[in-house]
Amino acid sequence: MRTEWLFTAISLAVGSACIAESETDLFDWSPSHDGTTVKEDGNAAASINLRMLARFRPLPASFRKAGLDLSKPLVELGKRLYHDKQLSADGTVACASCHDLARGGTDGQPTSLGVGGQRGGRNSPTVLNAAGNFRQFWDGRAATVEEQAGGPILNPIEMAMPNAEAVERVLRADASYRAPFAAAFPRAAEPISFANATQAIAAFERTLSTRGRWDDFLEGDEEALSAEERKGLKTFLDVGCMVCHTGSLLGGSTFERVGVVEPWPNQEDQGRFSVSKQEADRMVFKVPTLRNVLATAPYFHDGSSPTIEDAIRKMGKHQLGIQLEDAEVSSIAVWFGALGGELATEEAGPGKGAHELAAEPAAEPAAEPAKAQSFPLRDFMRGVASPALDSQDFGKLRKAFTRIGGFAPGGQFSSWSGFVQAGLAAVAAEDIVDARAACAGCHNKYQEPYRAKLRARPL
């Protein structure tokens, strides 16, 4: 009976309730683990299918985007603005008040407090890694953090500034802001503007990436997770949570109807329906990220689950139609502990000056730049495998060959694994000649068919 419920629930989630902009493409990135399983302990295998792991990706060091500035002066200005309570009507609330970096990018409240002690209607989602979400806010009403950053400042409950001009008057009255704005926007006739302030805040938010042990695991270090954490990962996959919690953020890439199998108890907030007015969007919300999830209680848009265990049980009941056993709940929660990370310490690299992008607010948002075709295996070979061959680093070569095996498609590529096994055998024997031969054989046979397959993908 439980298997039938699970099959039905996953079918519903995939077929009707998960509303994604795009599916994870197995050719974009594949995990780098040996064989077809990931070890649960020294003697047993957890039978984690690599195609399941291919649904996840490591985080980047920052969420850079083509055509957007992440210069050091802009990021530093954004960090200051993010923490400045002057941007609220009564000087008591900053962006950091509801999105405290020391509290997992949230405020620990079921719903957040704004100016004058007003309480908002939704739980504050984490700002950590938020720039990687496909849409912003629980209802997805903003496309990017650049579009999102000004919303809370002007929201009458949150920071309650009456308009953009009022924000500009406050900033221009503070002489200490003149130099930082000028450094971030050196060619702007008037550097201090509401649009430039929100652009700076968004630039800071794009640096809030929290890579951790989960990323090390995805990149090939099986020891990055304990045996209990790997067991929790298997449970997470087996019960079907990965249907919606996928990608580099383990969420943040789809809309989902909360209460797919059993209606959500709190029907007051109708989610995306408030934006679209489409009946199909009732109770539809953006799937939240699971990154740093143990630090972001309470959970869900209404803050209704005070503990992670309660949240896991609710997802089993309302989304999958199953009553998870206590051992399953605990196991998944243990794995969630591996999803925490630290803020990147890498300074923002050189970038195009903000003044070159938008010295003055544009009347219409710039068109999305054309999406470039990617060849991830080629990039991996050039960046990792080839240098390992040149330096004869057999430790790196072993990891390289196992990851190359993870890229393997089926069909006409049936002998791909043979080249990988030959390469691994050469590495074990520390035979650099045979290792080069295995790489050359795979390259010569499959380079063009593989690229042709990638070119055939829709962008």
Shape: globular
- Average the pLDDT over all residues and give the rounded result: 81
Structural class call reads mainly alpha
Q: How do the strands line up in the largest sheet?
A: 1-3-4
Tally the helices.
19
Spell out the helices and strands N to C. HEHHHHHHHHEHHEHEHHEHHHHH
The CATH architecture name of the largest domain reads Orthogonal Bundle
Rg over CA atoms: 24 Å
CATH classification, class level of the largest domain: Mainly Alpha
Distance between the termini: 41 Å
The poorly predicted ranges are 1-37, 40-45, 346-376
Care to count the β-strands?
5
Q: State the major sheet.
A: 3 strands, antiparallel
Name the CATH superfamily assignment of the largest domain. Answer: Cytochrome c-like domain
Work out the count of structural domains. Answer: 3
What percent of residues are in strands?
Answer: under 5%
- What is the CATH fold-level name of the largest domain? Cytochrome Bc1 Complex, Chain D, domain 2
Roughly how much helix do the residues carry, as a percent range?
40-55%
